Amino acid sequence: MASPMKSITEPRASSSASPEASAELQTLTGSQIIWDTLVHEGVSVVFGYPGGAIMPAYDAMPAYPIRHVLVRHEQGAAHMADGYARASGKVGVCIATSGPGATNLVTGIANAMMDSIPMVCITGQVSSHLIGSDGFQEVDFTGVTLPITKHNILVTRTQDIMPAIRQAFYIASSGRPGPVVVDITKDAQQGSIEYRYDSSPIRLPGYRPEHHPVPREIEKAAEMIKAAKRPIIFCGHGVIEANATAQLLEFVQKTNFPVAATLLGLGGFPATHPLSLGMMGMHGEAWVNTAIQEADLIIAMGMRFDDRVTGNLKTYAQNAKKIHIELDPAEINKNVKVELPLVGDVRDILRMLLPQVEKRSCDEWNAHITELKGSTAVREIQSLPDNGRLFAAHVIHDLWRHTQGKALVVTDVGQHQMWEAQYYKHDYPRKLLTSGGAGTMGFALPAAMGARMACPGDEVWVVVGDGGFQMTACELATCAQEDIKVNIAIINNGFLGMVRQWQQFFYGGRYVATPIKSPDFVKLADAHGLKGLRVTKRSEVQAAVEAARSFKETCIIDFRVEQEDSVYPMVPAGADLDNMIRRPVPVAAAGGEIPSEELPGEAQKDVPPHNPIFETGKDN
Ligand SMILES: Cc1ncc(C[n+]2csc(CCOP(=O)(O)OP(=O)(O)O)c2C)c(N)n1
Ligand SMILES: [Mg+2]
Question: Which residues, other chains included, contact 288 with Cβ-Cβ below 8 Å and sequence gap of 6+?
Fold first, then answer.
C-alpha cells in the first residue's frame, strides 16, 4: 500500500467570508452545515445508520435534498458508498455514529483504501469535553483509521466542519483517490455559527496530488516502444479511474500491442477486442502469464505490481524492460524495478505519448501468443459436453451471453470472483466492481446496491458465493425497504470454495472449516418480500436469468453448482508466474485418461467425500 497522505495541516476555521463565497451569511448549526456542505459537494445520496453521537446531524437531514439509505450494518454503508463511487466515478458518502457504529465501517474503509476508492465517511464522536474519558461509545476513530485512510480529521468546533468536509472531498478525489474520515463531535454538531459556504479553491501545503513527466521521458518511452519486439501493455485500475480507456484503445490501434489486464483493470480495454489477452496473475490466463515471462517490453498502466499479479518477484518478467505509468510515486520501484517511470495521470500521459508513437505492427509476437492459446483449448470447460452437472463457469458464461455483456457486475471474493473475471467478458469500464486489494467477503451485495443507486439505468448483477453472501445478507432488508433492484446470482457450492481449493492443493485435502451450510435462499428472498429461484441444471440458466430481469424486485438465484471444481490456472502463492497448475485435460479429450503430471497435487488423486450437508442438485 502506498504511504497514506498524512501531511496536511489541520483545517483552518473559516467563518470569515471568502471573496468567492456563494451564499448569504446565515446562522446555522454544525449539523445543518454538514448537509449544506454535502449538497455543495454535489452529494445526492448517503448510506448510513444513526446513533447517539450523530443524532443532531440526522435531525437536520430532512431539510436537505439528500436521500439517505438506511443500512442494516455499517459495513454495508461503507461498501455501498464504495460501490457508488466505483460505478459513478464520484465520491461516495457513508455516515455512522461513534464507537461501534464507526468501527463497523472499518472493513469497508480498509477495502476502499486498498483499491483507491474516493469515499468520505462522516462519523459522530462523543462531545469534546468527554474525549479521552472513555465516554459512552467513545472510540478514538481517527486513531483507529490512521493506517487505512488517505487522511482523517477530528473536528471539535462547529466552524471547522465545512472546511474539513471540503478538504475531505478534495483529498478523497484528487491524485490517487482514497477514503477520508471526518469525525465530528456531538457538541460541534450542536453549536451554531454565522456561516456561509466557501467555494474558494482548496490549498493544502505539502499535498501535491498532481505529477507530470518531462518531455524527455515521453521521448524515451516512444523509443522503447519502437524498439520492442515482444511488448505487452498492462491495463490496471488506474486506466479506469483516470477515464483513459479511449486513449488506451487509440494507443493499441496505433501500436498493435496486446493488452493484459489486472483484476481491477478488466473493462479498461474491451475484452472482445482481438488484442485483448485477458487477465494476468494468480488466476490469469496461462498464455498471458507465459507471454509476460517472454516479453521484452512491459508498459504497465495504472497498476501496482501486487503479489497476486507477479508471483515470485525474483523470476518475474526478467526479459522485459518496463515502463511504469502511474500516478502515485510511492508505487514506482516498490515491488518491481522499472527502467522508465512515467509519473502522472494515465490519460494525460497517453495524450502526450500518442503523437510521438509511430504506427507499427506486431504480427509475429501476436501470432506467437495465439499459438500459446491453442494449447489451452482442450482444457476449456465450456467445451465439455453437458453431462447434467452445473459448473460455475457455465453460469457466468451464460450470464454474459444473456446480458449481452452489458450488465454491471459486482462480485464478492472467492472462486466465483475468479470465474467471473475469466468468463464474463467486460467490454466497458466501471462495469465490473470487485474487491481486489483487500479481498473482502461480503462486499458484493452492498456494493451492488450502491452501484445501482449511482446508475439506476444499469442492469446490476451480484455474483457471490454462498459464504460471502451470508456475511452481508442482512442488506436484503435494505433492498426491500429502499426499493433497490439488483439481481443476485449465488454460486452455491456448499463450500468456502477458494479456501477448500487451497486445502485440496496444498493441505492434503483436509477440508477443515470449509463445508458451509446455508439457509434456503429462495425462502430467504421470500421472507424479505423479494423473489427467489433455484437452478440446478445448465438448461435452466437462461429462463432464470430472464425471470430475474423481469421482476421489479431484487431477485436471488440459488445456482447449485459443482461443489469441488477448482479455479484454473493457478499460480501457487509465491511461485514463478509461469509455474501454473492447469485444469486437467478432460477425460474425453485425453483419450480416457488424465496424465498424472496434469494433476494439481497429491490431494487431487484422493478427493475427499462431498460435503455431506449439501448435495448438488438437491434442495436442502
Ligand atoms: C472477510 C473475509 N474473511 C475471510 C476471507 C478468506 N476467504 C477468501 S475466499 C473464501 C471463501 C469464499 O467462499 P464463498 O463465498 O462460498 O465463495 P467461493 O469461493 O465458494 O466461490 C474465504 C473464506 C476473506 N477473503 N474475507
Ligand atoms: Mg462457496
Answer: 260, 277, 278, 279, 280
Superfamily (CATH) of domain 215-372 = TPP-binding domain (3.40.50.1220)
CATH number of the domain located at residue range(s) 4-195 in this protein:
3.40.50.970
Per domain, the residue ranges of the chain are 4-195, 215-372, 384-606
- The tens digit of pLDDT for each residue in 42-60 reads 999 999 999 999 999 999 9
- 384-606 is classed CATH 3.40.50.970: yes
Is residue 413 within 6 Å of ligand 1 at its C-beta? yes
Round to whole Å and give the CA distance between 196 and 194. Answer: 7
Domains 215-372 and 384-606 share a fold: yes
Q: What whole-number distance in Å separates Cα of residue 140 and Cα of residue 149?
A: 14
Mean pLDDT of 269-296: 95
Q: Which of 302, 314, 223, 318 is nearest to 267 (CA)?
A: 302
Hey, what's the cell of 203? 490549498
Share the mean pLDDT of the chain: 91
The answer to whether residues 476 and 445 touch, using CB atoms and an 8 Å cutoff, is yes
Q: Give me the amino acid identity at 385.
A: P
Does the active-site annotation cover 210?
Answer: no
Tell whether ligand 1 has an atom less than 6 A from the beta carbon of residue 441: yes
Rounded to an integer, what distance in angstroms lies between the CA atom of residue 2 and that of residue 276? 29
Ligand nearest to the Cα of 114, by number: 1
Contact 529, 480 (CB under 8 A): yes
Please list, in sequence order, all residues whose beta carbon lies within 8 angstroms of the beta carbon of residue 397, skipping any fewer than 6 positions away. 382, 423, 424
